[in-house]
User: Fold this.
Amino acid sequence: MAGALFAWAAVSASAQISPTSPTTSWRPISYGPSNPSIPDPFGDQQTGSREGDIIGNSTTPSFYTSFYNGGTPSLTDGQLGFRLRLAEQQNPPGFSGAAFIGIDGNADGRLDLFLGVNNSGSTAQIGIWSAGPGLNNSPSTTTIQNVAGFSYSEVGINYSWTPVNVTIDPTTVSYDLDNGGNPDYFLTFVIPFADLVSAFSSAGIAGINENSIFRYVAATATQGNNLNQDINGVNDGINSNTPWDPLGGISLPITASGITPVPEPSTYALLMLGGTTLWLLRRRRK
Assistant:
């Protein structure tokens, strides 16, 4: 990016990702130049299920990533992991909904692939799903293919549903951020990075590797083909047709390996202005 200054901060890539490792070994996903993560409002999930309510505040992130480079010179192997903080566990025990991480892999403002956990049906799975036929540039236009291109059983090496406590989050100021009376829970999953590279190639986006720059949308759902419950960083907005950037529901750019290029403040302003202007022009044409 011309004229930009870059500050680099890397996630540890020297060990395989443990889904139960403490947050100190994970990287918060940033949504703004001044915050490590944007707070997600409490109680803004559409269905009322607190298990699907993503939560965070100005000092406690709601969304993390981790990367393992495979211990080889290859830029396309290893593991990619994500972690969401949710308001509580409801009966029966275990996460019973769906959570997706949408990825814009070519900087066009549209979500190209979805990674996540779908426990909403009869078969619990971690998966990589292609985007559906919608525009996928806002909550109301986002659709997800029903069948995962890659799927994995949920086992201890790739999945965790864990109450927030001093072991997994030693720096937190509260184990119950929304004061709901029950501890928050971390939903964590890990996928093989090579499968993500392959899925991008099938979606027509070639050359993806650990240095590729992504932007993420994190959301929960009650079913596997859309985002209908809570969007990280947005107060409600689940049915909005406002594009991800003006809505505030998409992360800042970050490489797959967890390195964030931080441009000058003026560059942030230009990115936001460009996204908002494009949206307004499209609305005017309608």
Observations:
- Residues 1-12, 264-270 have pLDDT under 50 and may be disordered.
- The first helix runs from residue 193 to 202.
- Helices lie at 193-202, 244-247, 265-285.
